[in-house]
Amino acid sequence: MKNILVPVEAHSAIDSVLQTAVLASRRFSSYIEGTPLGPDLPDLVAFDMPVSWSVADQNTWKDMADEAHQRFEQAMRDAGLPEAGADKTATSFGWTGESAFGESQIGAYARIFDCTILGRPGTERGDARMATAETVLFESGKPIILAPPKTPEKMGETIVIAWNNSVETARASSMAMPLLKQASKVIVMTVEEFRSDGPAGDLYADMLCRHGVNAEFVIRSASHRNSGEAILRGAEALGGDLLIKGAYTQSRLRQMFFGGATSHIMNYAEIPVLMTS
Q: What pLDDT sits at residue 55?
């Protein structure tokens, strides 16, 4: 996790996003790169915003980028991080982009970073956009970390893996290995009512121990909750400060109509969540 991308936009969790990036950078002596984020033009049209404004008023996009830059740089300097210099291995920050990037551009640009830190989409007006999280999930090939609305005090000391035997969660856990190796405790948690075919969590915990990870296995009952709520309640009860989850182990279309763990977690998690598709 040496290279972290942070798209910056005025939404309800942006302060938490910036501080979550700082927490990650201190664990890995990372480089944090900020970049301005704005909606793609089709999103503006879909929400009936004036197309003439989005196309013609280029100064508005430049102002948006300047404001994002100032907010990002102030947060990095307040945290005591230096601006990037000749030493490419040192903890540092930098900025790219003179005008706001759309989601599609962010999704592509994120491919060269180890992870992208975004705001948890949520359900309220002013929350980060779901479109941003989903675009980076499916277009970058790299993990995302969703920061909760309230700034976390720590991240990665006690990690909970929501193990449902799926390929998506196996991929997410593999990409999170640098975090797992640094954690004080890793808990492989299975909700017994919600798992697919595949190796059980106790076997996976044993394999993690071979990497030097302090891993243990627990199994929980959903107790009539939906899968996403059961995962969040379980992670909270176990003292987790980071949840690892494979995204959309059911199809996105099915989750749109019937709900699912990924959608629930993206809307309601109160701790950082690392996801891959």
A: 43
Q: Pick 3-147's CATH classification: 3.90.550.10, 3.40.50.720, 3.40.50.620, 3.30.470.20.
A: 3.40.50.620
CA distance 235 to 238: 5
CATH 1.20.120.530 fits 158-276, yes or no: no
Q: What is the pLDDT of residues 40-69, one digit of tens each?
A: 655 444 444 444 334 445 567 778 888 999
In terms of pTM, does the model score above 0.85? Answer: yes
